[in-house]
Amino acid sequence: MNSRSHTVAVPLASPQVFRHGIRHPDLWLWDAWTYTDESTLHLFCLALARTNSCGQAITPADRNDYPFHVRHFSSGDGGESWRDCGAYLCPDERPGSPTEHNIWSGSALLHGDQLLFGFTGVTKPGVGRSFHQSICLLTSSPEATPDLADTVVLSDPSRDYEAIRKAGYYLGPWSTLGSDGGEEDGPILAWRDPFFVPEDDGTLRAYWAGKVGPAEPAVASGRVRLTDEGYVMDKLYDPIVPPDVSQYTQSEVPKVYRNPRDGSLLMLTSTCNRVSEDQPDEEVSKELRLYQAPGFDGPWTPYAADGATLPGIRHLFGGEFSDVDFVSRRASLIAPYTEMAEPELQLTFADIRKVSLEPENVKKPAPAA
């Protein structure tokens, strides 16, 4: 399979200090995941140069034609300003690598003295199958850059096809997994965007984007355990299907936050009604939705009686709460703008938004992105 790395450069870290969001002069940026180490807030996101190796402009709509990379930014003032730390991970195009074709979103968890870095590996098993995804994990120290050669593939739709289907998840025909054209008149394969939450017994609860039907989204979950051979996913739990799931076709980049006082959970997801990668952006609406559950086993319900959609969050998608204050019921949202924002804001990061988690303040759905 031909290398795609030559098609687009990975720009060096910019010396610019970005304030009140990140409008990077050289990069498109989207999706967000964070962790805090002492007083430093670390932000990771997907990134792609705004021009290709031939000097031609890359539009947001064309970004799947190129390999992405994971970009790292850091902040010493809670996200008021950001420093570009450069590329953190780039696809490993060696044959057999889980990122041979591309690398997609994930999460970062400071777990003891280790950083557990989750991400989505993307391969292309054949012509017209550019979106084959797997759930991946790397461990390193916070100061080090992990080596993709050490990637642990926790779950892979081809390798684990029967086990995934037996657990209640939908996968299209094995021979067409990752099809560019989607799955049986629905969106593309969904087995991506891992996020990890520690459990009391020392295991990790993993959450990621999945499906229960061709166009029926779900949040997948599983148990990740450290063994003598390393981390493994040894259990798949039932799909999480919120009661308002009929309002959208994809649920992506789930982020789950646990209240240390009572074990209750909040889940922030990014949802849209896209059914095809060729669909014009003006036909697609995108929202941030918030759900709650009394514990890991659910049930999951919209955070407010009037619905899960966060109000006042226009054109933001793929976001994360960098912190959640369960006592004051407020959170800090870091999120990029969608392609539906005004041109100078598209695929840049907004300033940090303070979000009220009081149900009475979460009433009217936000306008579609």
UniProtKB/TrEMBL annotation:
<protein>
    <submittedName>
        <fullName>Uncharacterized protein</fullName>
    </submittedName>
</protein>
<dbReference type="InterPro" id="IPR023296">
    <property type="entry name" value="Glyco_hydro_beta-prop_sf"/>
</dbReference>
